[in-house]
Amino acid sequence: MNEQSNMKPKLGICVGRSSKTTRRTFKRLTQRRISMLEKDLFDEIIVFTLENLNIETSTLKGQIYRKKDNKIVIENGTFSLPDVIYMQSEVDHHELQAIEKLMPGRIFNNHFYNKYEGSQILSENKSLRIHLPLSRMLREVNDLDEALKDFHEFYLKPIRGHSGKGIIWVKRDEDHMKIETAKKNSIVKNSKDIWNLYPKGFSTGKYMIQQGVQTSKWKGKSTDIRLNMNKNGTGEWDVSLLVGRIALKKPFVSRGADKNMLMYIEPFLKEMFSSEKIINIKESIIQLGHEIGKTFDDSSYHMGDIGIDLGLDQQGALWVFEVNHLPYPIRSLKDQDLSFTRPFEYAYYLSQR
Fold first, then answer.
1. 229 pLDDT more than 50
2. How far apart are CA 14 and CA 134, in angstroms?
3. pLDDT in tens, 140-154
4. Residues in a beta bridge with 187
5. What residues pair up with 211 in beta bridges, in sequence order?
6. Three-state SS annotation for 27-59
7. Helical H runs in 36-186?
């Protein structure tokens, strides 16, 4: 290494635990991110799992990922602590408190909050409350009875779910309830029938209830909006991606090219709103994204990478359905989705403070 490279900072990327299969997904994503970097910001990028971080010796075992001739070259080793750690993993905040004492302010995405906890964080900001569907935890059958009284339709969401997996849509009619999941539709008579769909998951606090919102229709199909926000190279929240999503087969957007369609935000909105209103809507979405980022800044967590799922109701009002701690960048839009590389820019900013 030359003298100039030695002056560059070191970045650590935690991809979870060795026992978790998600680490493979995060390793692949890390390789994709590095392959897209245009600037060589770091002397070393060290990828590691949490159990290989040794606080007593201030070292970690892992792999250096280097970009060479448009390929990622991997080198195993034991290394000193990096200047910054990017948590690209499912790790709770309390597990990082010891290492954060050694690296205060230099570990970001430091809490894997669940969906319900995320809604509670947002509700601390009074200006966001009007944008939040009513949410509550599901713990017993009576919770379903209350939801059926309060809402014409609602969602049962796994609090640790992602990509639409496990979501159950419930719509109340006069003498029955319509149920839809990603895999099947059914008709049930009462709350006990709903409970019996997944009694083990419902009774152990793995699901939440969220008020349903009739989103604007794109040629008759349900929609939502994905806004990826990242902290950039100056430490400020910035828009990395803004797209509309159209549910092709269900009343909610779920993962899979056969289940949803992506569109850039302007043509997406043009199908549903006037040109004058589109400008205001887009500005409002971005303003809402910045307000959500600020809300996390005001919390006890250090986030730099969030994916916001929003919806526009049929009157054009904005709703925030959830904020994802680990927004997976959209591969098909890699040239437009800046959330692939912005975490590296923010990490470099932190290393220079």
1. yes
2. 34
3. 999 999 999 999 999
4. 178
5. 154
6. HHHHHHHHHCCCCCCCCEEEEECHHHEECCCCE
7. 97-102, 115-123, 141-150
